[in-house]
Amino acid sequence: MKHQFVKVAAASPELRVGDPAFNAKKIIEIIEEQSAKGTELLVFPELCIPGYTCGDLFLQQTLLDGCLAALKKIAKATTGLKMLVFVGLPLSVDGKLYNCAAGLSDGKILGFVPKTYIPNYNEFYEVRYFSPAPEGGSWLPFGGEENDGAAFSAELLFRDENHPEIAVGCEICEDLWAPASPSVRLAQRGAAIVVNLSASNETVGKREYRKTLIAAQSGKNLCAYVYADAGVGESTSDMVFAGNNLIYENGVCLAESLPFSGGTAEAEVDVGFLLHERRKLNTFCENATNDDWLDASFVGEEELTARQFPQLPFVPQGKELEKRCGLILSMQSSALARRLQHTHAKTAVIGISGGLDSSLALLVTCRAFDLLGKDREDIVAVTMPGFGTSLKTRNNAMAIMQAAGVTIRTVHIGGAVNRHFRDIDHDPENRDTVYENAQARYRTMILMDLANETGGLVIGTGDMSELALGWCTYNGDHMSMYAVNSSVPKTLVKSLVSYEAKRLGGRMEVVLKSVLNTEISPELLPPDEEGNIAQKTEDIIGPYELHDFYLWCFLRRGYSPAKTLYIAERTFAEKYDRETLKKWLVSFYKRFFAQQFKRDCVPDGVKVGSVSLSPRADLRLPADASANLWVREAEEL
Question: Strand 482-483's sheet: what is its strand order?
């Protein structure tokens, strides 16, 4: 386990119905293969030792004895391995037969978990053989010795003795489908990982429903769910089994095997993230107890090998991107429409720089006006050229306003800002913070006054990434009357503008493509000798793709600096070296903590994703909180 990642796998072994010795041999082969890969938790299907489809053979003592002998052989094969293994078998206890999962580790049979819900409908008739799990638990001695045996209970939790936060609960097939699944109780008692030994036959549409069930179960229980399904070796007299092995984490599928492939699902589940979510969500009620805990040593120090993280975690990938962009734009525009309607605003006033953020804000405002049936001429779009305005951005600003069909206002701010410099006795050749921020604040004053003049609202353009880093002028572009982009990270802004360009087409698409190909800049310092943008944001504060990634790790996943850098190195291996990643990580923590005072008084703005920096919604952070713990850990990595 590295940074609380646990390597898990679900496998469907080759199988002969009614032949425990052969099946044990195949199970051991998989255990050896997975051990070589560093797997720490391995799950096999329900009744995999004899085969789920044994029928009345389950009533034969010969089969039961053969299963127990095979189990002991499998357990012995785990000796010396850092692995927790679950296999299925029938077990006779006090004259009753139970469908059980056996937990094995380091040569020992730790415990038996009996199935709670016994199906007896449609193609299932398990009640003919098996009894439901009894209340409470007991100790099953082997060989007549009290200390040579295993626990027997549906309440068992298996945890690593060196990492007690890594706890595993177990349920069997139908238990998942029942209304009161044991996994709910197990998760509340501390199980961060739930395994399911299953023999769920394949019928048309069942795979999709099964995945929906597991996604929901792992999501509401804030757990990882490792599901091992019976495979093609089972009898096909009346049913067929496809080996649907699935691994989910908090509602997200990490790995799955293809039906009828005989494949194994393998993944690295992030227990640290799950524990972070449980701490954060107060409706997840833990009821931890020391009863029925079984300790083992199955967690090692394996490096990540398979787990991948997206470089742009706030940006959906593939087919989902277009659907998500449409939804977000609808959320933004609907929220703004409601605010305009509630305040009886006649106009919307918005500053247009020719950059990404103001373009997105204008597109959202146009959508809102269209929703309300209002004339776009009541959108007062203002371009305010200053000392750093380049020809390209000014042309982009004019073109997008014209294409949108809004009222265009141009206010040159150079003269007024220079008069202000004289008033405060500031040398305009001194290109310091005063030089830059005076322009931003003067632009905001213009917008506010025009809103008063026209009976409207000033629409904010700043995005969430800028708020996270404090890359905004306090009471300048930091302020508005409604901030439509306030929970949209910079990396997502590009996707939204690109989506809208494609949707609108024509002249608007042409100008938006020009905006997308323009350097990100506040344009507060003069252009270079060729008239090009000289002040490039990402050269100053670092790449937005890194800062958005770090923001996601920090707030959404609850990662430490060490874990964040560990994952960033693997995610951005081909783009940034370790020193560059570390440099901007340290910068991120310093800026994030130092700039909270700006976030404490941000305007209203709709939350569109899983992360928001609004002090009224997601983030309650003292403005004078120290960053020392995070910065020191990052610097010392």
Answer: 407-410, 379-383, 347-351, 456-460, 482-483
State pLDDT tens for residues 557-612.
Answer: 999 999 999 999 999 999 999 999 999 999 999 999 999 999 999 999 999 999 99
Question: What does pTM read for this prediction?
Answer: 0.91
Rg (CA), the chain: 31
Q: Looking at residue 108, what is its pLDDT?
A: 94
Does position 143 have pLDDT exceeding 70, yes or no? no
Rounded to 10 degrees, the C-alpha dihedral 178/179/184/186 comes to -40
Beta bridge partners of 138: 152
Q: What's phi and psi for 427, nearest 5 deg?
A: -75, 115
* Three-class HEC string of 15-53: CCCCCHHHHHHHHHHHHHHHHHCCCCEEECCCCCCCCCC
DSSP string, 360-417: HHHHHHHHHHHHHT--GGGEEEEE---TT--HHHHHHHHHHHHHHT-EEEE---HHHH
The pLDDT value recorded for residue 99 is 98
- Spell out the SS3 assignment of 401-459: HHHHCCEEEECCCHHHHHHHHHHCCCCCCCCCHHHHHHHHHHHHHHHHHHHHHHCEEEE
Classify the C-alpha dihedral 426-428-431-436 as positive or negative.
positive
146 pLDDT band, cuts 50/70/90, is very low
Residue type, 454: T
CA angle 547/551/553 to nearest 5° reads 115
On whether the CB atoms of residues 438 and 473 are closer than 8 A, the answer is no
Average pLDDT over residues 524-552: 87
Half-sphere exposure of 57 (CA within 13 A, CB side): 19
Domains of the chain: 5-296 (3.60.110.10), 319-635 (3.40.50.620)
Non-local CB neighbours of 40 within 8 Å, separated by 6+ positions: 1, 6, 7, 8, 82, 83, 84, 298, 299, 300, 302
Pairwise CA distance, residues 584 & 589, whole Å: 9
- Check if the beta carbon of residue 442 is closer than 8 Å to that of residue 387: no
- How far apart CA 69 and CA 74 sit, in angstroms, is 9
Structure-block tokens of residue 562: 């060490």
User: Distance between CA 101 and CA 277 in Å, rounded?
Assistant: 28
Catalytic residues: 46, 115, 173
* Mean confidence (pLDDT) of the chain: 94
Burial call 37-68: b when 16+ CB within 10 Å, e when fewer: ebbbbbbbbbbbbbbbbbbebbeeeebbebbb
pLDDT at residue 230, rounded to an integer: 94
Mean pLDDT value across residues 332-358: 97
* pLDDT score, position 288: 62
Token code pair at residue 235: 């009898």
Least Cα distance to 603 among 343, 281, 380 occurs for 343
Please state, in angstroms and rounded to a whole number, the distance separating the CA atoms of residues 613 and 611.
Answer: 7
The single residue listed with the structure tokens 């119905």 is 17
What one-character-per-residue DSSP string does 65-81 give? HHHHHHHHHHHHHTTT-
Q: pLDDT tens-digit profile of 89-107?
A: 999 999 999 999 999 999 9
Q: What is the pLDDT of residue 144?
A: 47
Which residues, listed in sequence order, are joined to residue 160 by a DSSP beta bridge?
A: 296
Q: What is the pLDDT of residue 474?
A: 95
Over residues 464-510, the pLDDT tens digits come to 999 999 999 999 999 999 999 999 999 999 999 999 999 999 999 99
Q: 268 near 7, Cβ under 8 Å?
A: yes
